[in-house]
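Appendix C reproduces, verbatim, an entry submitted by the partner laboratory led by Prof. M.T., so that reviewers can inspect both the input and the predicted structure.
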Amino acid sequence: MKIIYLTIGFIGLGLGVVGAILPLLPAFPFLLMAAFGFGKGSERLHDWFVSTNLYKANLESWVKERGMNKRTKIRVMVVITLTMIFGFVMMDEVPVGRIVLLIVWIGHVIYFRYGMKTLAE
């Protein structure tokens, strides 16, 4: 079972690193996946992961205080919005898809604005 968790951790780490570099791929959920996988699969890898700058810059405030600072919330919302705009444009001939994307985007905005705690810088 450990090998499955480690595989989840490494896949999450790889996609999280790519997401931290590319603006259209969100890093946050993949880094959460990496933290989960390493946490269940290897104490040593988990300790290493939580000591990295990638973890500290993207997840530490969320894990410790269940919130994000204003700058991080804005960055995440910009990436989500750009991703949704891309999908919206690509679904030119799929009106139901556009409606679904719009509802999901509105849900994200409401959650990040009102449902997630804003931490001091």
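The first helix runs from residue 2 to 21. Additional entries are available on request from the coordinating office.
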